[in-house]
Amino acid sequence: MNNKKKNYGDAIFAMIAVGLLILGILLIPFSIVFFGFKFLDSLPEVKIDNESFISNLWFVGQFIGCAAVFSLITEIWSRKLTTAKNKFIAIVVKYVFTFILCWLFSSIYTQFSNQLSASNRGVLYIAFFLFALSLTVEILYFFLIDKKNKK
After folding, report:
1. C-alpha span between 94 and 80 (Å, rounded)
2. What is the pLDDT of residue 7?
3. Percentage helix, strand, coil, to 5, in the chain?
4. Residue 151: per-residue pLDDT
5. 77-86 burial string, b = 16+ CB within 10 Å, else e?
6. What are the domain boundaries of the chain?
7. Using CA of residue 54, residue 113, residue 117, residue 26, what is the dihedral sign?
8. Average pLDDT, stretch 113-132?
9. Measured between alpha carbons, how far is residue 66 from residues 9, 112, 145 in Å?
10. Less Cβ crowding at N or C end of the chain, within 10 Å?
11. CA–CA dist 108, 126 (Å, integer)
12. Is the confidence at residue 2, as pLDDT, over 60?
């Protein structure tokens, strides 16, 4: 018979570490978007109805969902633009196209949203915010996934 006591300390530490990593992976992007919207709300051109903290979280989650679907569609369309022979022109056209679609999305979303209203300049600020987020995601994708696959 084996009378050794089982040590659960390592397993508990591993579960806590994995839980914190998952929480960080989910919390960091959501908090960047949430505080980005708080910054946009501080501008006089953008108005977000502040009813309560939970409704703000719900609005940010809803906006992230719509923006994620929109970004996926934009990425599919813009991949077709990068098939040109001159790569520099293809990349410039891709990013201009992405910014125009971010502006279109923000203007349509502000027209049909009950919680978000913005002037023309405010729509442009929201488009810049979305464009900066898409560039950040693309840079992270390049450094984390593409660079590893090329080695």
Report:
1. 9
2. 73
3. 80, 5, 15
4. 60
5. ebeebeeeee
6. 9-150
7. positive
8. 87
9. 42, 13, 24
10. N
11. 12
12. no
In angstroms, rounded to a whole number, what is the distance separating the alpha carbons of residues 74 and 78?
A: 6
Confidence (pLDDT) at 133? 84
| Greatest alpha-carbon span in the chain | 78
127 with 118: CB under 8 angstroms? no
Q: How far apart are CA 86 and CA 96, in angstroms?
A: 16
C-alpha pair distances (Å), 139 with each of 65, 126, 128, 147: 21, 20, 16, 11
Cβ partners under 8 Å of residue 62, min gap 6:
none
Note the pLDDT tens digit of each residue in 73-89: 877 877 776 666 777 88
What is the pTM for the complete model shown? 0.72
User: Which tokens sit at 11?
Assistant: 């397993």
Closest by alpha carbon to 123, among 106, 111, 109? 106
Q: Which residues pair with 46 in a beta bridge?
A: 118
What CA–CA distance (Å, rounded) separates 10 from 20?
15
Whether the predicted pLDDT of 36 surpasses 70: yes
pLDDT greater at residue 74 or residue 131: 131
